[in-house]
Amino acid sequence: MKKVLRIYFALGLLLIIMFVLGITIGPYPMTLGDVWQVLIHGPVGNASMLHTIIWDIRLPHMIGAVVIGAALAVSGAAYQGLFINPLVSPEILGVLAGAGFGAALGLSLSDHFLIVQLCSLAFGLLAVGLAVGLAWRVGGDDGLIVLVLSGMIIAALFAAGLSILKYTADPYDKLPAIVYWLMGSLGQITWSQLAWSVPVVVVGSVLLILQAQRLNIMSQGDEEAQSLGVAVIRTRISIIVLTTILSSVTVMLAGMIAWEGLIVPHLTRLLLGADNRLVLPGSVLIGAIYLMTVDVLSRSLFSVEIPIGILTALIGLPIFAGLLLRLGASGWR
Q1: pLDDT for position 332
Q2: What are 174-195's pLDDT values in tens digits?
Q3: What number of other Cβ atoms are within 10 A of residue 198's Cβ?
Q4: What is the CA 331 to chain-centroid distance, rounded?
Q5: Which of 21, 148, 266, 306 has a CA-to-CA distance to 61 between 20 and 30 Å?
Q6: Cα Rg for the chain, rounded, in angstroms?
Q7: CA-to-CA distance for 294 and 172, rounded, in angstroms?
Q8: Which residues of 1-24 are buried (b: 16+ CB within 10 A; e: fewer)?
Q9: Where are the domains of the chain?
Q10: CA distance 90 to 74
Q11: Confidence (pTM)
């Protein structure tokens, strides 16, 4: 237990360090002294530009990275526990494909950012609803396998729809906006978006963490879980609903960010073991740290900021390959 507490303390300290670094690093570098002066004294004299950069750009930027990283990571950990499958991630039931299609549709129909976000949320929820409905209609003894296959079908459907939208979009106006959105970026996050998204992610993450012990029991099989008093169907539906909402919120805020929900839970298990009571809260911390780190790299490696969705894929692939080499085939069962 002491080892676990030390790990959590180290992760919390690392989160604070990365948050501070994220505020100071960027195209306009600044020192900790500059940040302290702006936070304490406000926009006085030459600090007015720094005040704008910190309060209007970098603070929302970094808080958004924490929120999105935590939401994707805890969703991925919950899904992997629910499906008892290490290859599962938040997009397994088509939520990201549906949300991406909705965002592209919103961008095609309107320039109003709220319309884009509402379409993203609506189609993310619709995609998962269709996947669950299809799985329920098919039925069968292997419910989880049917659910995964249904998710793959619905994801492919919305991916095809997205291709149609991109093909028919105005190549000089709408198409670049759609492509940029799908690459993922934290640059558009504002305080008004954080005002509603932070409570949603906090409540959703806490509710998922409260399901951790049920996930541990359900890993022994549905019959064993039911004999121990777990309402398997109700628990499964509640986890799917919560992860769908969390994943849709991330697309609403920053577009498509791949691999985060797949990689981070594995990194968490390497540190804390397989107990979901430790993995889910640990994934929240490590997911936030991971995305903040990627965000800092996206702003510091090149003269222009690279869309974060590209870097999460480029960094996530070798990490996943390294985990596969380290754990071997037996480590994924």
Answers
A1: 46
A2: 898 888 888 888 888 889 999 9
A3: 15
A4: 24
A5: 266
A6: 20
A7: 30
A8: eeeeeebbeebeebbeebbeebbb
A9: 2-327
A10: 9
A11: 0.91
